[in-house]
Amino acid sequence: MLEDFLADLKASLTVSPIVKDIDILDEFITSVSGFLDCRVLMIDGSELYVSEYFTVHENKIKRDKYSYHLQKNDELIIRWDNAPHHRELSTFPFHVHEKDGVQESKDMTVDDVLEELSKIIQ
């Protein structure tokens, strides 16, 4: 189950038309959890840092922690994550960091992020 989840996660990145290359920085799978940390070079030269920690709960995959951080020339463009801060937001813990501050966000997946980024990366 976890192996399939990790394979699907990497496949989403691999087949995306806005992705140029993927550098796996760290990954692991145990009997109850998994982790992926990678740097994704986008076709416009920006870099997407993907980090997901996931576990199995009642035969379902739970994404406990995630961060999708897009930057170009070491400058933040956008980052979605579920770190447990910004309790003032109605979507807590889900939020997005943009140049003008932190905003509410839905619970994002790598597919959601790639869809959003395809609107700004061509």
State the strand order across the main sheet: 1-2-3-4-5-6-7
Mean pLDDT: 95
Helix content: 10-25%
Low-pLDDT runs: none
Distance between the termini: 34 Å
For the record, the count of structural domains works out to 1
Oligomer: single chain
Summarize this structure briefly.
The chain contains two helices and seven strands; from the N terminus they run αβββββββα. It has 122 residues and is α+β, with helices and mostly antiparallel strands.
Explain what you see:
- The chain is α+β, with helices and mostly antiparallel strands and 122 residues long.
- Helices cover 19% and strands 49% of the residues.
- The chain has helices at residues 2-15, 110-118; strands at 19-29, 33-42, 47-57, 60-72, 75-81, 95-98, 101-104.
- The protein has a 7-stranded antiparallel sheet, with helices on one face.
Helix and strand arrangement:
Blueprint: H1 2-15, E1 19-29, E2 33-42, E3 47-57, E4 60-72, E5 75-81, E6 95-98, E7 101-104, H2 110-118
Question: What keyword list fits this structure?
Answer:
single chain; 122 residues; alpha+beta; 2 helices; 7 strands; 19% helix; globular
